[in-house]
Amino acid sequence: MLKQRRDEVSRTVTTALVDVESNLDNALLSHARLQIAVIEGRRSANLPLDAGQAGLDKMSEAVGHLVAARKAIHEAHYAFRQTRTDLRMPTTSYGDFGDTPDGGIVPAEHVGLALVHAAA
Questions:
Q1: Residue 104 has what DSSP assignment?
Q2: Angle at 77 between CA 72 and CA 78, to 5 degrees
Q3: What is the pTM of this model?
Q4: What distance in Å separates the CA atoms of residue 76 and residue 90, rounded to the nearest whole number?
Q5: φ/ψ of residue 90, rounded to 5
Q6: What would you report as the CA-atom Rg of the chain, rounded to the nearest whole angstrom?
Q7: Using an 8 Å Cβ cutoff, are 17 and 80 in contact?
Q8: Is the distance from CB of 13 to CB of 80 less than 8 angstroms?
Q9: Helix, strand, or coil here: 94?
Q10: Cα separation of 119 and 96, whole Å?
Q11: Burial class (CB within 10 angstroms; exposed 0-12, middle 13-18, buried 19+) of 116
Q12: Cβ-based neighbour number of residue 87 at 10 Å
């Protein structure tokens, strides 16, 4: 019963963590699109170079915070992985780097992921 509850908690945390990671990436992409829109808009409207500069300055500050948040969430991901290891819970999902269970044996259904990673 306790093992089942821990597995449920692990899945809930993992889902929320992946959601945060995705949202941060989406925020960075949206930020980049905004920056492009500001610069292209200034050009197409034939405005002086300093038009919108104060906004761009604030955007530069904001992107630094987004990048720092992304790094912190990445570090949290590894901290949660260590918690899983400390609790002797098995690896149940495989991410970008093909996290492998203890012993390095990848289940057959995940072999394709390892091959893609190796080819990259």
A1: S
A2: 100
A3: 0.71
A4: 18
A5: -75, 155
A6: 21
A7: yes
A8: yes
A9: coil
A10: 13
A11: exposed
A12: 9
By the 10 Å C-beta count (0-12 exposed, 13-18 middle, 19+ buried), 35 is classed as middle
Structure tokens belonging to residue 31? 């930020």
Give the tens place of pLDDT for each residue, 5-24. Answer: 888 888 888 889 989 999 99
Q: Give me the DSSP letters along 45-73.
A: TT--TTTTHHHHHHHHHHHHHHHHHHHHH
What sign results for the dihedral spanned by CA atoms 9, 78, 70, 19? negative
Say which residue the tokens 């492009």 belong to. 36
SS3 42: helix
Q: Is the pLDDT of residue 104 over 50?
A: no
Residue type, 17: L
Q: What is the pLDDT of residues 77-93, one digit of tens each?
A: 889 888 888 888 877 66
How does pLDDT run across 41-69, given as a tens digit for each residue? 999 999 999 999 999 999 999 999 999 99
Specify the 3-state DSSP secondary structure of 106. Answer: coil
